[in-house]
Amino acid sequence: MLREDELHDLAESIKTEGQHTPIVRDADGVLLDGRNRLAACEIAGVEPLFTTYTGTDPVQLILASNLRRRHMSKGQKAMITEMARSISEHSLRDHAKLHAVSLTRLSNAATVLKHAPDLAELVRTGKLHLDAAYRTVREIKAHAAAMQAKHNYLSQHAPDLADQVVEGLLTLDEATTALDARREEEQLRQRVRDADAICLADGDTTPPLGQRAERGSITWHQAHQSAEQFLAQRQEIINRTQQALEQLAKNWTGVQKLGAHPNTPYAQEILDGLSPHARALTGRLTTRV
Length: 289
Known about the structure:
Blueprint: H1 4-17, E1 23-25, E2 31-33, H2 35-44, E3 50-52, H3 58-67, H4 74-85, H5 92-98, H6 103-115, H7 117-124, H8 130-157, H9 159-166, H10 172-201, H11 209-215, H12 220-250, H13 252-260, H14 265-272, H15 276-288
Parallel strand pairs: 1-3
Antiparallel strand pairs: 1-2
């Protein structure tokens, strides 16, 4: 389309001098040529003059009327060619050869016309480069694909949240955040259950944290905090016990000698330096030596 000031100039010309060139439509009333003249007639308040195209190749008419108006860039020519081809049954390759247009450029124009007709019109009028329009469409398509992938994932793992997105109650990002929160909560609960199972296997008779959380006496976050503390303390005790046993193993020869000769000065000096608890333990160990 012409710029607004150009349209008004054309409208003034038609109003004072008349419409010299009729607007071309096909037998079904589809506009083939004269979009600017039609708009100018509406502005001028003049009844437009129409003619019906009776030829057999409306594509050529559209191409010819567009290409003779001004010098066209390769992107504009590709877009005009594609716009004409879109109402024909010819292939991209045929039109690329027929009108000496790069097949890649024509394919890009087809993509823009299909997914962003408003951008295609800007390319046709020379207000936007075809390459820029094509990049924008690719970004739009990539974004749409990402959004669709998110929605598919949501539909698979949280159909209720997906339904709320469809109903407009949640945005896709809000629903995805809600799903992440659910998964985090489930991981937290599973961690508590795992700690309860370990506690039970160790012979601890304390009421399971999960049961207490289910009853509402504590929150799941409190249960998780207690479970983490239990697991950390348990691991610390295991580490200290392992270290103590490793140390005992290194000095086992001396313990064996103590058991074999309990009444010697050697044995007495060792026992005198022990706490009552350690002395009792030593007694149990040396009895078994």
